[in-house]
Amino acid sequence: MKQTRRICVSVLADMGFGTQVETKTVAERLGYAADTKLVILHADDVAMAHSINMASFAALDQKAISSASVMVTCPCIAEVAAYAKAHPDADLGVHLTLTSEWKTYRWGPVAPKDQVPSLLDPQGYFYPDVRSAAAHIKPKEAERELRAQIELAMKIGIRPTHLDMHMMTLAATPQLYSTLVKVGHDLHLPFLALRGNGMRRKMMLSDTDIVFDSFVGFDSNVPADRWTESYVKALDLLKPGLHYLIVHPGYDDAELEAVTVDHQLYGAAWRQRDFDTVTSLEFKRALERNHIILVGWKDLRKLSSP
After folding, report:
1. Residue among 11, 12, 23 nearest 207 (CA)
2. Which residues pair with 126 in a beta bridge?
3. Is 71 buried (19+), middle (13-18) or exposed (0-12) by CB count in 10 A?
4. Within 10 A of 21 (CB to CB), how many other CB atoms are there?
5. How far is CA 251 from CA 27, 161, 255, 275, in A?
6. Entry pTM
7. Which end of the chain is more exposed for a tag (fewer CB within 10 A), N or C?
8. Helix, strand, or coil (residue 67)
9. What does R_g of the chain's alpha carbons equal in angstroms?
């Protein structure tokens, strides 16, 4: 998932649960006190590259993160399938992908191209940016591709715990977001429910859907030597509720430098810093000091099951 991130807790405008009045917080429904700070510490872009896989697996194994999501459109998906088989309790979702943003490293749909032509740029790949993708994609074809990605994940042995979205493309228009909600409801999988002002989006959610209280992030212009400090500051600002913190672990090696060539944002060095931060003692102490409890999508799935 890619978007500019800010060094604060970014609370998006309330999207609500229809007319239902919640009598219990998510924390209470999970068995915690009402004023508990819950965080899903989540890694994006697994399967994009071997380096990203290895860093993400290491972070999962160390319990430095609580979940991750997989790009089944990418070349290193077989590694993830093997990891999922060896680690059946791993909290892995599908990182639904409709964009292909790198300069020399591109991918396209899982569905046959002639069935999803609106998803393709002139070179036959996904569009490289959200604006172009949203301007061209037909929701019916997007739905066809989303289902194909999820079906492939299941076919190779990944049992998704949730659905989220690469570069937030599915949140670009109400029509695309509605497609995500429909697929999530049909498959009984929790999805990234965004907060927003629009009534159209508000009416898409069911009473069992979980909406995060905040999206946690930091300024992409933070100097490298203050990276961990920035994340710690974001943790210090958290209030009771359910929060979503997304990181992009990776190792700064020749492979990832080639994959992300000419991209400082979310490039190899960026991803190494993310990995170093979430596995650092300073970050772990910040979680403890702020009494933050890490939860996963598996926990939320229990609450959203019919």
Report:
1. 23
2. 120
3. buried
4. 6
5. 34, 25, 9, 8
6. 0.91
7. C
8. strand
9. 18
Degrees, nearest 5: CA angle 138-162-300: 130
Q: For 12, which DSSP code?
A: P
Are residues 74 and 152 in contact, defined by beta-carbon separation less than 8 angstroms? no
CA 253 from chain centre, in angstroms, equals 23
Neighbours of 288 (CB within 10 A): 9
Q: How confident is the model at residue 218 (pLDDT cuts 50, 70, 90)?
A: low
Two tokens, residue 81: 């399938």
Would you state the pLDDT for residue 105? 97
Q: CA nearest 70: which of 165, 145, 135, 142?
A: 165
8 Å CB contact between 167 and 265: no
Under the banding of pLDDT at 50, 70 and 90, the label for residue 204 is confident
Contacts of 24 (CB under 8 A, 6+ apart): 34
CA distance 243 to 245: 7
Please tell me the number of Cα atoms within 13 Å of 260 on its side-chain side.
Answer: 24
